[in-house]
Structures are given as C-alpha cells and as structure tokens.
Write a structure and sequence with these properties.
It is a single chain. By secondary structure, the protein is α/β, with parallel strands linked by helices. The protein contains twelve helices and five strands. The chain folds into two domains: 84 residues, Orthogonal Bundle (Helicase, Ruva Protein, domain 3); 160 residues, P-loop containing nucleotide triphosphate hydrolases (Rossmann fold). Helix content is 48%, strand content 12%. A five-stranded parallel beta sheet has the order 2-3-4-1-5, with helices on both faces. Helix 11 packs across helix 12.
Amino acid sequence: MYLQHFGLRHPPLSKQLTELWDDGALVQLSQRFNWLLQSPGIGLLTGEPSVGKTAALRSLTHPLNPHRYQVLYQAETDFGRVDIYRGLARALGIEPSYRRAQLWRDIKERVHEMVDSKQLTPLWIIDEAQNLPAEFFRDFPSFLNFAFDSRDLMTVWLVGHPVLAQVLERSPYAALYSRIQVHVQLKPVLERERFALLVAHALKSAGSQHNLLADTGMEILRQACKGLPRQAGRILCTAMRLAVPKGLNHLPDEILQQAIKELQ
C-alpha cells in the first residue's frame, strides 16, 4: 500500500533494484570479476552484512551469456563439507554420491565435459562463506586440482564477512589462500555527499518523482544505517509505512526516528 501511496514501483534499496548506484566504488569489483571470467580462478569478496555484496554480484552475473557461463549460486554454507559439494553436484545436474571420493570424481567429470565439449565455464558463487567448515577450506585446493593441476576450469567467488579474509590468512589454509587471485572489499557509504547520492538514486530508480527527505532526515538516516544500503532501505520502507496513515507524502524527521526505533 505504501508503494502506491508514494508512487513507487518497488521498495528503494531493495532486491528488486536492477540498476545499482555506482560512483566508481564498484569499478574495481567489475574489473576483477571480468578478469576471473577470462582466466578462471578464485576471487574473494568481503564486506559488512548489508553492504551489498550479493546485489553487486547479482548485477554482474545478470548480463552473462548462458551459452558461455553457467552461474551456480550457493548460500547454504553452514553444513558439512560433503553437503556443500552435494549442493554443487545438484546444481550441475548430477545425482550426488554419498561417498566424497566418488562425488568429487562425478563433479570433475561434469566440469571437464562442460569446458571441453560445450565451451561452458562454471561460475560458482559461494555466499556466506564465513560459515564454511574448516575442512572445506583445507581440501578445496585439492578439489580444484584439474589435469595434474595444469588447468583452471572453474571460476569461484568466496563471498562473506570481513572475518573470512582473516580466517583464510591462517597457516592451515595457506594452500587455498595462495590460489586467491583477487580480493575486493566493499565498504559502507559513510560520506555524507555519497550517501545522499545513493539514496537519491534509489528513490528515483524506484519511481519517486521528488525527494522524500529533508537534509536533516538524510543525516538521521545515514547515521542510523551506518552507511549500509540494505539497512537504509529497511528504515525508509518502515518510515513510509508509518507515513501512510498520516496522509504524508514525505518523510519528516520524526517519522524517520520512529522507524528507527521500531527496527531496534
């Protein structure tokens, strides 16, 4: 109901946003993303929760040619290592074996077939990777060993919180860390001017014809969400819901403050 009231097509800063705001901060990720498409390997993408890691990768994978790349997205990571590989097997159309050795062989055979016979590169995105078990980190380099370790056939992105990078720097995971070709860290939009541009872009993309917040309201929002786009979107949507019964077509500071309290 609040969308119709404010003339919006979708909630601002939501998952429905197709055109991400970028003042250059995502250029590095886009470049590194394309590097790994051309030369398969492992990429590491880290950032605080709600900073927009998954949204950025979703935007980058959307235009990919499905005849050249098969995108495999996996976010169920808080399980045993065999469960992770079983999830990959199912995504590749393989009935997963209960034995890890056979499971690995089946997956590798499918990857070889995809690359050599179909010229199709698997792009495996493992989200919430900070939850992966230690055993997965230890044996993942062995899994990626193709043809006497002479070929890199898969592009893999490990996506997670900043602690993920700290974990992978530990000595037990040196083999995996040495295979990481690129590391990109997304940061919150903390600067006032940049944050105002982010929100203005989000509202315009959602269909808003005018600015809904005063400068003081923008600052209240920036400080409350700590520069995290998803959190800013939650506050805006809650504030709009609160504004509808009052017949308001803008978001006064007190409505924003009330929305922030409701979400605490």
